[in-house]
Design a protein that fits this description.
heterodimer; A: about 375 residues; mainly alpha; two-stranded antiparallel sheet; globular; B: about 290 residues; alpha/beta; Rossmann fold; 6-stranded mixed sheet; 4-stranded antiparallel sheet; about 40% helix
């Protein structure tokens, strides 16, 4: 009876790591992150053309953290159709969990030479608040990097999805969530350093944080994490789970009447997405050297959505491309034309929404991509001219 | 009362309980005497697959369903007609858990209380529903649409590690042949014609193996030939499945009820106005007044 089917598309899907092309791509990315960049930065002398400056390494490292967020946003927005405008809160929570550990690592080397973070000394606190109890332990704080955003997302998502809050209403309450959390973190009594947040980090795991080697190590870890998340996202998207997520995006009621409980699927991908952002935040903080509540402003969360949209929703490479493109443009514009940046960002978003529903990746990819259409048009013209 | 007497009394009571327990064990016990089927399993012992009793649904004072009582027999093909706003779609919403009635009872078989279940649980219990507007997953291929509808474990983890078994592939192949979409298997569902989408949705229902199919205007937008084929398909399902068809197309209703004494139910203002063979219903004066005559 199998002969009935022209193409058994459901048979064991793609070979390991998505075939030859996928494997080559991943290997190249790994090689660049783990070999080329470290060599170009640490071993090649500063005068050489092949030398990569510390500034560039830090910038790319930072953008890779953003790319993880964009990838997380793509899973929940591009594939599942749930637009979150509050993903910054998960990023910040992961960052704060890492920041607490880094603050404890400063030890007695702060401004006040006391074995407490400066802001606590300044507030005249004599002992650590309860939520700092485990902050001395690297393992515990790394667990918090996952648990804090994960738990918040799970509880928030459970109630929102159970109440069947959808579309723009969901987006608005995610904004409210990140805004409320930001206000909470702004307060000194919350015990997260108020509006200054955490900064002036000295060490991580007892090793000085500002050395070139440490910076490079963080860069390599970030790059490998990004690649690992990319592979995880691909595994999800290519599984039946991925197809159910897309089905929820296209016709949720049909999914329900087919016997699937959308709540469970949405909650799973929502929580995973939040955890990915949390981990990105934890990698971001030691590289950038500061975390404060500004990461939780609604605008910061909206930017994540813009990276994803610009790069291309519902593609896996898209959000990574988008994060690099928008943030690359940002770092150039904020140096060259600082006042113009926000207008450029807005224009970019509008242009993508109007002309490139598939984002930058859609421009290049597929037979109905703009590039392919242009090529066809030129070929046709060339043909008629002859 | 002395301690001796109390002890004797307690002993006697225990002995009686033990005798009763032993006796119950021999006869199969109280559990057996109730002859219950395991919960969650469809019980058709009474020949009724769907039983709606006194269902009332009101939206802001407007009664979409007004003490509606309706029973569908196991294996029956029932057509439901009625003018716009008669409550046909609301009735389906109640059966599938989308709308909760203000009053009344709804049973699937004699044991499954539909009002206690959520949409996906009702679907898993064996009620499939086709919407008025064809609803398929437009960005997935026809094949993937059927794959998702296929009976399988519905948990997140299972879906992550899901692999299609050969017999499941065969099942999809059979269904594709049945709904005449074999050639389009790898096409995105969004690119199908309206009629083909209707067929795909019907295929998605069938592959779920439901016991009861609710079909809301299944031939809207189909060509005459497609309509004819749909009627044939439904008639072939009769007996092994129970079907409830809501339709405006009288030709289609005629094709479905032709030859045998299949019942047609006329809904009006949330109530059953008439029920019986099509000819009889069409002759009913009240029906002519509200619907057919116009």
């Amino acid at each position: 009876m199998s002969a009935v089917l022209p193409l058994p598309a459901g048979a064991p899907r793609g070979p390991f790591l998505g075939g030859m092309r996928g494997r080559v791509g991943v290997t190249v990315a790994l090689a660049v992150v783990a070999v080329v960049v470290p060599v170009a930065n640490l071993l090649v002398p500063a005068g050489s053309v092949f030398h990569l400056s510390d500034y560039a390494v830090q910038l790319v490292g930072k953008i890779m953290c953003y790319a993880i967020c964009a990838l997380a946003m793509d899973l929940i927005w591009g594939y599942t159709g749930i637009l979150s405008l509050g993903h910054g809160v998960f990023f910040a929570l992961g960052g704060y969990a890492m920041g607490m550990y880094l603050m404890r690592q400063i030890g007695a080397d702060g401004q006040y030479r006391l074995p407490m973070p400066d802001f606590m000394v300044f507030l005249n606190w004599k002992e650590f608040p309860w939520h700092w109890a485990l902050s001395d332990s690297f393992v515990a704080q790394m667990a918090l990097v996952v648990l804090a955003p994960g738990l918040l997302a799970f509880v928030f998502g459970y109630f929102a999805f159970r109440s069947r809050i959808k579309g723009v209403y969901f987006s608005i309450i995610t904004q409210a969530m990140t805004y409320a959390t930001m206000l909470l973190f702004f307060r000194n009594e919350t015990g997260f350093g108020g509006n200054n947040g955490f900064t002036d980090f000295k060490r991580i795991l007892g090793v000085p944080i500002a050395t070139p080697t440490m910076r490079m190590l963080l860069f390599v870890v970030t790059g490998c994490t990004l690649i690992a998340f990319f592979l995880l996202a691909r595994a999800i998207v290519e599984s039946k789970l991925g197809r159910i997520l897309m089905a929820i995006r296209d016709a949720e009621s049909r999914v329900m009447f087919t016997g699937y409980d959308p709540l469970r699927y949405k909650l799973a991908i929502w929580t995973l997405s939040a955890v990915m952002c949390g981990i990105a935040g934890a990698l971001y903080v030691p590289q950038v050297g500061i975390i404060n509540p500004s990461e939780m402003t609604p605008a910061a969360s909206i930017e994540i959505a813009i990276w994803t949209a610009v790069g291309g929703r519902a593609t896996l490479v898209g959000p990574i491309v988008g994060a690099f493109f928008v943030n690359g443009a940002k770092s150039w514009f904020t140096q060259a034309l600082p006042e113009a940046w926000l207008y450029v960002l807005g224009a970019m978003f509008i242009a993508v929404t109007l002309f490139l529903p598939q984002g930058i990746v859609g421009l290049v990819r597929g037979s109905d991509g703009v590039l392919a259409r242009l090529l066809r048009a030129t070929r046709r013209e060339a043909g008629s001219a002859r | 009362m002395t301690p001796d007497l109390m002890r004797a009394g307690a002993d006697a009571r225990r002995a009686a309980a033990e005798r009763a327990a032993a006796a119950a064990g021999r006869s199969g016990g109280r559990q057996a005497s109730w002859s219950r089927v395991a919960t969650g399993e469809l019980d058709l012992a009474h020949g009724t697959i769907l039983y709606l009793d006194d269902i009332t649904v009101s939206f802001d004072g407007f009664k979409a369903l007004d003490r509606l009582t309706l029973a569908i027999g196991a294996g029956e093909l029932r057509c439901i007609i009625g003018p716009n706003g008669a409550g046909k779609t609301t009735m389906m919403d109640v059966i599938t858990g989308k709308t909760r009635p203000d009053a009344g009872r709804a049973f699937f078989g004699s044991t499954i209380d539909l009002l206690r279940l959520r949409e996906n649980e009702i679907a898993e219990a064996g009620i499939g529903r086709k919407f008025q507007k064809p609803t398929v997953f437009e960005h997935l291929t026809v094949f993937e649409n059927l794959e998702l509808a296929l009976k399988s474990e519905r948990s997140v983890r299972a879906s992550l590690f899901f692999r299609l078994a050969p017999e499941q592939l065969d099942r999809i192949g059979e269904t594709l042949a049945l709904i005449h979409l074999k050639e389009q298997a790898q096409k995105k569902a969004g690119l199908l014609s309206h009629g083909q989408k209707q067929w795909l949705e019907i295929g998605m229902l069938l592959i779920q193996d439901p016991r009861l199919l609710l079909l809301d205007e299944p031939v809207a937008g189909m060509t005459d030939e497609e309509t004819e084929r749909t009627a044939e398909l439904f008639l072939s399902l009769e007996g092994s499945h129970s079907l409830v068809v809501v339709e405006h197309d009288m030709k289609f209703i005629q094709a479905l009820t032709h030859g045998r004494s299949r019942k047609v139910t006329v809904l009006h203002e949330g109530r059953v106005l008439a029920e019986g063979p099509l000819a009889e219903v069409q002759g009913n004066e009240q029906v002519v007044e509200v619907y057919l005559g116009r």
